[in-house]
Amino acid sequence: MSAAGVQAVDVFFVLSGFVIAHVCATREHTLYNYALSRAARIYSVAIPALILTIVLDAVGRSYDPTVYQEGFQEISGGLLVRSLFFIGEQWNAHRFAGSNSPYWSLGFEVWYYIAFAAFMFAPKPWRWAAVACVLLFIGPKVALMFPVWLMGVAVYRFITIKTISETAGWTCFVAPVLIFAVYQQLPHSPLQPFMPVSLQSERIISTAQDYFIAGLFCVHLIGFSGISGSFSAGLERFSMAIRWVSGATFSLYLAHLPIMHCLSALSPLSKSSTAHEMLLIFGTVFICFVFAECSERRKKVWRLLIVKMVRI
Question: Which residues in the chain show pLDDT less than 50?
Answer without folding.
Answer: 1
